[in-house]
Automatic annotation (TrEMBL):
The gene is Pcdhgc5_0. It comes from the Eukaryota. PROSITE patterns: CADHERIN_1, CADHERIN_2. It is a single-pass type I membrane protein. It comes from Scytalopus superciliaris. GO terms for biological process: homophilic cell adhesion via plasma membrane adhesion molecules. One of its GO terms (molecular function) is calcium ion binding. This is Protocadherin gamma-C3. It is found in: Cell membrane.
Length: 677
């Protein structure tokens, strides 16, 4: 490695060094070895004459551009030689020359300094810049002669030097308003180079008088809810200074709360304080506003005063109703005087405007009792009945004593809860039912219905049959009847037989599901309606199913002699038991007749020799039912010379038969009498 040193700014072609001599090589060998110069930088600052081996400057070299403020600056080259290949490193040090004077950023600078600036005050000046290094760079400053300022140069660790003006003697603007100084920067080159900057200092008037209010404090009175923009007070302050020092601006002091700043605003020019927010006596009765007056001097001077604003109350708040305790459900059996709600009332206004009276409608079963100031109790005043009124909207009205008064209405919804205080009631006190006998099993005879004005569990009803007296005191209706426990439908377990039971009476009991359960009863009368389900039965004459009864008459019998009487009964009743007798068949239909109602069999004409000696009669007994039922009986009439009289024959035959039972005789007599009637 070979090193050379050259100053910057050499002319093109300037000698740097002889590479052949320094390498100890013949110049002819360098030419034959194809010598090449390689630079590490983008610019080719150097070249080599292969004929002489001399390194020369090929371009302008500016050390400040290449290396800046570095104290040492180097450029590096590489020499390449062929046959054999060899590389040589050449280092060229660029030495600084004093080719740059110190330079200030501008030719002139202005300073404004107040006349009351304290002695020793320092005023920095923009430093001059010198790109040279070493002794060629900036070394010192010089200040022109003056009476008030000295120069102080601050040196930094990096070598930088900063000039400062130091006030050594007080300024007097009235004596000299402007000071003109010259600051010179000089480097250490040979010869030295320098530059100058003109400094103009303006002495500013000192703001030595503060504003003064015409009063130390102000007072005002406003009613609450004053309109926005209402004037509170107009402030007045003066400043004996002139210009900006006497120009005053008003503002609210920072000591005021943010809430107060939302309510009041001040005009910075006129000093008028106006309302810009809502004034509420209930939030604040007095506002104390801190105001400051500042002049426009620099530095500014200020003065403070306070404004006391008293707020007058108006009746702008309606009473408030607060439920301390309230139960929206109330049992209907609650006694009069039961507390339903405890109510607290308040009014944010003051004086008479804050006194509150409460009342409820006298039409409701409730009343208010004043416990003490601002508290009322809502009580029941009478007995309650949910079945009459199940729900109440009780309006509590609260009014203050303002003029005009303000009021507030609060609705308390009260629901009455049910108690089992109503027994079920049947729609009818008793029921009468007509039931045709032979009814189907399970058919509905009657539906009893009851209602309970209670609600929910207390109104759920169940029905049951109780044993009651009827035509048969020992008859138990539950053997024949059943009732659905919820629908009240009474059904038959068995078909009814009118011939056995014509009337049935029983009680139906209904009970609710309350605790304790309440009950009620109704009486049901069941009348069995007869149906024509029994055919007539012949009680006389008695005969077997396939036999006929014989009667004997004399050939000389005189018409209309009674031969016999057919006696029949029907177990049915009414028209179903209304019997009629008919001669359907006979050996000679013109010889005999049968009475329609009595059943008497008589001969209608005298017997003749040509008549048969034996006559067979078919008598049908028919009831009046729909459809009619009938029974037939066959009578054989024998004509004999020696036969007894017809009626006597009948009696004899009856006697032979052992006689009729007593009850049968009574029935026969009754039927005869009925038929006759």
């Amino acid at each position: 490695q070979i090193r050379y040193s050259i100053p910057e700014e050499l002319t093109r072609g300037a000698f740097v060094g002889n590479i052949a001599k320094d390498l100890g090589t013949d110049v002819t060998k360098l030419a034959a070895a194809n010598l090449q110069v390689l630079s590490d930088s983008d610019s080719q600052y150097f070249s080599v004459n292969v004929n002489t081996g001399v390194i020369m400057v090929s371009e302008r070299i500016d050390r400040e551009q290449i290396c800046g403020q570095n104290p040492r600056c180097f450029l590096h080259l590489k020499l390449a030689i062929e046959n054999p290949v060899e590389f040589y490193r050449i280092e060229v040090e660029i030495l600084d020359i004093n080719d740059n004077p110190p330079e200030f950023p501008s030719d002139e600078v202005s300073l404004r300094i107040y006349e009351l600036a304290s002695l020793g005050a320092r005023f920095p000046i923009q430093p001059a810049q010198d790109p040279d290094v070493g002794t060629n760079t900036l070394q010192t400053y010089h200040l022109s002669a003056n009476d008030n300022f000295n120069l102080n140069v601050k040196a930094r660790t990096d070598g930088g030097k900063f000039p400062e003006l130091v006030l050594e003697r007080a300024l007097d603007r009235e004596f000299r308003a402007f000071h003109h100084l010259v600051l010179t920067a000089e480097d250490g080159g040979s010869p030295p180079q320098s530059s100058k900057i003109r400094i103009t200092i303006q002495v500013l008037d000192a703001n030595d008088n503060h504003p003064v209010f015409d009063r130390p404090s102000y007072g005002a009175r406003l009613v609450e809810n004053s309109p926005l923009g209402t004037l509170v007070v107009k402030l007045n302050a003066t400043d004996v200074d002139e210009g900006p020092n006497g120009d005053i601006r008003y503002s609210l002091s920072s000591h005021n709360s943010a809430a107060l700043r939302q309510i009041f605003a001040i005009d910075e020019q006129t000093g008028e304080i106006r309302v810009q927010g809502n004034l509420d006596f209930e939030e604040a009765t007095v506002y104390e506003i801190e105001v400051e007056a500042k002049d426009m001097g620099s530095p500014t001077m200020e003065e403070h005063c306070s404004v006391v604003v008293e707020i007058t109350d108006v009746n702008d708040n309606a009473p408030e109703v607060i439920l301390t305790s309230f139960s929206s459900s109330l049992s209907e059996d609650a006694l009069p005087g039961t507390v339903v709600a405890v109510i607290h009332v308040r009014d944010r206004d003051s004086g008479e405007q804050g006194k509150v009276l409460c009342h409820v409608s006298p039409d409701l079963p409730f009343q208010l009792r004043k416990d003490y100031e601002h508290q009322y109790s809502l009580l029941t005043s009478t007995r309650l009945d949910r079945e009459n009124v199940a729900y109440y909207n009780v309006t509590v009205s609260a009014s203050d004593l303002g003029n005009p008064p303000l009021s507030r209405h609060t609705i308390l919804p009260i629901t009455l809860t049910d108690v089992n205080d109503n027994a079920p009631q049947f729609e009818q006190a008793s029921y009468e039912v007509l039931v045709a006998e032979n009814n189907p099993v399970g058919s509905v005879l009657v539906t009893v219905s009851a209602a309970d004005p209670d609600s929910e569990q207390n109104s759920r009803l169940s029905y049951s049959i109780l044993r009651a007296g009827g035509t048969d005191p020992g008859l138990d209706p539950t053997r024949y009847l059943s009732i659905h426990p919820t629908s009240g439908q009474v059904t038959a377990k068995f078909p009814f037989d009118y011939e056995q039971t014509t009337y049935l009476q029983f009680h139906v009991e209904v009970s609710d599901s309350g605790s304790p359960a309440l009950r009620n009863r109704t009486l049901v009368h069941v009348f069995i309606v007869d149906q024509n389900d029994n055919a007539p039965r012949v009680h006389f004459p008695r005969a077997g199913e396939d036999s006929a009864t014989q009667f004997r008459i004399s050939p000389s019998i005189v018409p209309p002699a009674l031969i016999t009487k057919v006696v029949a009964i029907d177990a049915d009743s009414g028209r179903n038991a209304w019997l009629s007798y008919h001669l359907v068949e006979a050996t000679d239909l013109g010889l005999f007749s049968v009475a329609l109602r009595s059943g008497e069999v008589r001969i209608t004409r005298a017997l003749q020799e040509t008549d048969a000696s034996a006559h067979e009669l078919l008598v049908v007994v028919r009831d009046a039912g729909e459809p009619p039922l009938s029974t037939a009986v066959t009578l054989v009439v024998l004509v004999e010379e020696k036969g007894p009289e017809a009626l006597q024959g009948s009696e004899a035959r009856a006697a032979d038969g052992g006689g009729l039972p007593t009850i049968t005789l009574y029935l026969i007599v009754s039927l005869v009498l009925i038929s006759t009637v």
